[in-house]
Write a structure and sequence with these properties.
Distance between the termini: 30 Å
Mean pLDDT: 86
Helix content: over 70%
Radius of gyration: 16 Å
Order of helices and strands: HHHHHHHHH
Low-confidence stretches: none
Shape: globular
Strand content: under 5%
Largest sheet: none
Length: 214
């Protein structure tokens, strides 16, 4: 990557960190499309893993006392782990063009749906019924494109959790999926030393954004 590209990626991590610090989500929606355009989707997904696991581990611990009642968050995270494993296989086997098209479609779908349905909501019983299938589908997109937000955040926003409960649930979800993505990407050859090094370096600008957003 050129110096100009590195600066641009650094800025996107700061901006993404601000969103995540304020709302619990948003960093991948900013950073991954930029890196996917500059390099490719496997690079973007791999580089984001290290800052993703660090930031979400911190937020999961910080909001651990405000989790929703019952096993809602844990079922969501467990389903996400299964989906992320399958998605990581797709990331390794499919072409870059198909993956970057998927990223673009997911982002456009997310924006369009939220603009048309800003107050869409689910009752608690229906939300509990859907938590495992939605978690699995979101995990698949997280593993294959690095972006589960069009599914997971759209669903979780409709559940109507308090901010602290929302942040805990989403942070646990992303953290759990990363635990599957890292070994899966190493096994499939998506993660290498260079990408891992970029990921470690990306922790710093994301942390700055997290502090500002928080």
């Amino acid at each position: 990557m050129t110096t100009e590209h590195l600066v641009l990626v650094c800025v996107t991590f700061v901006i993404g960190g601000i969103f995540k610090g304020a709302t619990g989500v948003g960093a991948p929606l900013v950073a991954i499309p930029v890196m996917a355009i500059l390099v490719d989707v496997p690079f973007a997904v791999a580089v984001f893993l290290v800052p993703n696991i660090v930031s979400n581990a911190w937020q999961t611990w910080r909001f651990r006392k405000t989790k929703p009642s019952g096993r809602f968050s844990w079922k969501f995270a467990g389903a996400g782990m299964v989906g992320a494993g399958v998605g990581s296989f797709v990331l390794a086997k499919f072409s870059g063009a198909a993956l970057i098209t998927s990223v673009a479609v997911l982002i456009l779908f997310y924006i369009a749906f939220r603009l048309r349905n800003p107050s869409w909501s689910l009752n608690w019983d229906l939300a509990n019924t859907l938590v495992i299938p939605v978690g699995g589908v979101g995990g698949f997109f997280q593993g294959s494109t690095g972006l589960s937000a069009p599914v997971s955040v759209t669903y979780m926003s409709a559940v109507g959790l308090r901010r602290e409960e929302f942040v805990f649930t989403m942070s646990l979800y992303f953290f759990a999926m990363t635990l599957v993505q890292i070994p899966a990407q190493v096994f499939f050859g998506v993660m290498d030393i260079e990408r891992f090094g970029y990921g470690i370096a990306a922790v710093a600008p994301l942390s700055v954004g997290l502090m500002i957003g928080g």
